[in-house]
């Protein structure tokens, strides 16, 4: 089924093509300890960028298998066109229903998406359910408490101010007091506590700093879930335009070449039964 134009326009593919995005995901995949014979789940696979990295570690001749799961049919269609591998099974579904979609797994990876899930407890429990004893659950995100280095707060404030001004000039008002799911962030300590309270041991957290260009932030401004989190209640097309105009103006006014941003990397192991 071909993706509809709206989903294609407001997808994640542009942002996922940047080098820093591949770098943070490669780190997680390489530190998850994937063995050639493992069954690996790529939760929120999107257009397949992380699936490609996982395929570098599994071996079909050793019995390796990858389940690539995403709730978006259009994203899965992009991933199917991108990846031609007999060991990948593409499935439509959500992280909260993982145990209904796949059998036991050795590794579950959830790259750049856990912040979008309102019920994070359900995700953690579902990962625990499908993992074999000693299995690994790894995820990363740049939408958490601590993602913004202190010196960048002025930039983000100016970006949103310029975006809101753009909308006001066109007769659109941003709803006050509305917080979308994409803006509900946890701290690293809260993520660790959540994992340890639900059967995971040997929890490792690491912060990685990346430099984001103006173009990369324009590209994330085309992603529907980011748009809805940043400017809730505004139609996607108008909000996208406002965010892109706002980020360009903020970069120009502050004379920036790039903006530093932190990624949180988390690797946890299921305890032995």
List keywords for this structure.
273 residues; alpha/beta; disordered N terminus
Short structural summary:
With 273 residues, this protein is an alpha/beta fold. It has a 7-stranded mixed β-sheet with strand order 3-2-1-4-5-7-6, with helices on both faces.
Q: What distance lies between the first and last C-alpha atoms, to the nearest angstrom?
A: 43 Å
The percentage of residues in β strands lies in 15-25%
What order do the SSEs take from the amino end to the carboxyl end, as H and E? HHHEHEHEEHEHHEHHHE
Under CATH at level 1, the class stands as Alpha Beta
| Known CATH architecture | 3-Layer(aba) Sandwich
Can you lay out the helices and strands and say which pair or pack?
Blueprint (H helix, E strand, L loop, with lengths): L4 H5 L3 H4 L2 H13 L7 E5 L5 H7 L9 E6 L2 H10 L5 E5 L12 E7 L8 H11 E11 L11 H16 L19 H9 L3 E13 L1 H7 L3 H7 L5 H18 L5 E12 L3
Parallel strand pairs: 1-2, 1-4, 2-3, 4-5
Antiparallel strand pairs: 5-7, 6-7
Helix pairs in contact: 3-4, 7-11, 9-11
Q: What does it look like?
A:
It is a single chain. Helix content is 39%, strand content 22%. With 273 residues, the protein is α/β, with parallel strands linked by helices. It has a single domain (5-270), classed as Vaccinia Virus protein VP39 (Rossmann fold, 3-Layer(aba) Sandwich). It has a seven-stranded mixed β-sheet with strand order 3-2-1-4-5-7-6, with helices on both faces. Helix 5 (73-82) links the parallel strand 2 (65-70) and strand 3. Helix 3 packs across helix 4, helix 7 packs across helix 11 and helix 9 runs antiparallel to helix 11 (236-253). The radius of gyration is 19 Å and the shape is globular. The termini are far apart. Residues 1-8 have low confidence and may be disordered.
């Amino acid at each position: 089924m071909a993706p509809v134009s709206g989903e294609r326009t407001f997808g994640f593919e542009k942002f996922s093509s940047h080098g820093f995005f591949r770098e943070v995901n490669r780190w997680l995949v390489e530190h998850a300890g994937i063995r050639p014979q493992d069954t690996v789940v790529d939760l929120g696979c999107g257009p397949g960028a992380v699936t490609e990295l996982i395929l570098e570690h599994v071996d079909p001749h050793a019995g390796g298998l990858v389940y690539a799961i995403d709730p978006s049919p259009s994203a899965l269609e992009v991933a199917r066109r991108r990846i031609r591998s007999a060991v990948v099974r593409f499935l439509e579904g959500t992280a909260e229903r993982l145990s209904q979609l796949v059998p036991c797994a050795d590794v579950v990876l959830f790259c750049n998406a856990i912040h979008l899930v309102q019920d994070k407890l359900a995700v953690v429990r579902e990962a625990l359910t499908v993992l074999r004893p000693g299995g690994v659950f790894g995820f990363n995100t740049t939408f958490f408490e601590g993602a913004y280095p202190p010196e960048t707060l002025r930039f983000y404030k100016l970006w949103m101010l310029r975006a809101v001004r753009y909308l006001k000039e066109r007769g659109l008002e941003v709803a006050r007091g509305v917080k979308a799911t994409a803006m509900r962030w946890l701290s690293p300590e809260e993520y660790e506590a959540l994992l340890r309270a639900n059967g995971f041991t040997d929890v490792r957290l690491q912060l990685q700093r990346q430099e984001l260009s103006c173009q990369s932030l324009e590209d994330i401004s085309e992603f529907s879930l980011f748009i809805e989190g940043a400017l809730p209640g505004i139609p996607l097309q108008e909000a996208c335009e406002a965010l892109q105009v706002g980020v360009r103006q903020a970069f120009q006014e502050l004379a920036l070449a790039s903006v530093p941003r932190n990624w949180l990397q988390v690797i946890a192991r299921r305890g032995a039964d």
